[in-house]
Amino acid sequence: MGATHHNNRLFITVPRRRPGVPATLNVIDLSKVSPGDRSPSLKAYPTYPINELQPQYAPDLRRLVSVYRTTVDVCERLWFVDTGMLEYPDNRRQLQRPQIWIIDLERDQLVQRYTIPEAIVREGVGMASITVDVELTDCEGAFAYIPDLVANAIHVYSLRDNDMWSFNHSSFAYDRNRATFNVAGQRFAWDDGVFSIAIGQNDTVAGSKLVYYHPMVSTTEFGTFANVLQNKRIAQSGYYDGLFETLGERGPNTQSTMHHYDPRTGVLFYAEVNRNSIGCWNTNQIFDAGNHAVVHLDNRELIYPTDLTSDSDGTLWVLTNNLPVWIYSRLNESEYNFRLWRQDPAVAIRGTQCDNAV
């Protein structure tokens, strides 16, 4: 599941991993939520027919099959990947080609839909997140970075060129020594590769933005530059010597799904699934485990932070969903199993190693 906030609306995704999901992309209009309503209803977005599966699972590229996470860019457009895959345990199938969707949120209208060719990826299931790199002065010059946790690849889409290319590197693969998880009493081993990409500050020496990334099954952070990812020729050459580098170790049990860079504080925030916490690192400090901190940890209610995003006001939003319990056991339907959290980044880091005032 994923959650993105924009202009008093929450966009919530529900991937189709079991039958009975009426809509994979949903919205909550917070202006219409009654005070005290802790569990508002989801409404299919942009419409229910676009979310409805065809009879006999017939392919239809005008409809959504399964979406994991979304993001909103500075040009007020909602971006996401429809994997095109049903992940039902007894009926796993690729219904149609995966696609990148871009929706204008001012008009709630589709502005672009790009079908990802088979030469890029055979199945869409590994594309669980998307990060958009764009300047307000050049909305058509946007690039989307899409980590692929199955293919161990980073796919790059150019909006202006309507083209896509891929990078493959050893740092995109999972760490076999960090594959064991223990979450909410569930012990399991996963092999998810590169999972999250965060766009950092501009490096004046390199003349480009820093780009942070990591596999989920890893406690190591890696880095590259935007001008590397945006260069199709480099991708096709396969020669990446020195272009993808290890930054360092974050510390024990810091396996992370999503992470996000906050430009106001200069802090990188992590959704740490193996210890039910939100972690941080101040990019003004040396990258090592001692300079990482926990801004929030809760073994009862912050179980499995699956998404971490930021809105146009800079507020951090975190979604937790008890995923390991749902997969390996059974959810307690008398309790809240899905929670949405928010906090100002400067407040979140106050008094921690990540605080600029410390």
Polypeptide structure, described:
With 358 residues, this protein is mainly β. The chain has 2 domains: 1-168, 6 Propeller (Neuraminidase); 170-357, Neuraminidase (6 Propeller). Helix content is 7%, strand content 44%. The protein has helices at residues 48-51, 226-229, 232-237, 323-328, 345-348, and strands at 2-6, 9-13, 25-29, 43-44, 67-72, 77-82, 85-88, 91-94, 99-104, 109-115, 131-135, 138-148, 153-158, 163-168, 180-183, 186-189, 194-203, 208-215, 220-225, 245-249, 256-262, 267-272, 277-282, 292-297, 305-310, 316-320, 339-343. The strands form 8 sheets. Strands 1-2-3-4 form a 4-stranded antiparallel sheet. A hairpin with a 4-residue loop joins β5 (67-72) and β6. The longest helix has 6 residues, at 232-237.
Overall SS class: mainly beta
Low-confidence stretches: none
Strand content: 35-45%
For the terminal residues, how far apart are their CA atoms? 35 Å
Number of domains: 2
CATH class of the largest domain: Mainly Beta
- What about the largest sheet? 4 strands, antiparallel
Strands in their spatial order, largest beta sheet: 1-2-3-4
In one word, what is the shape? Answer: globular
Specify the number of helices.
5
- Total number of β-strand segments? 27
The CATH superfamily of the largest domain is known as TolB, C-terminal domain
Pfam families: MRJP (PF03022)
Protein name: Yellow protein
Family: Belongs to the major royal jelly protein family.
Subcellular location: Secreted
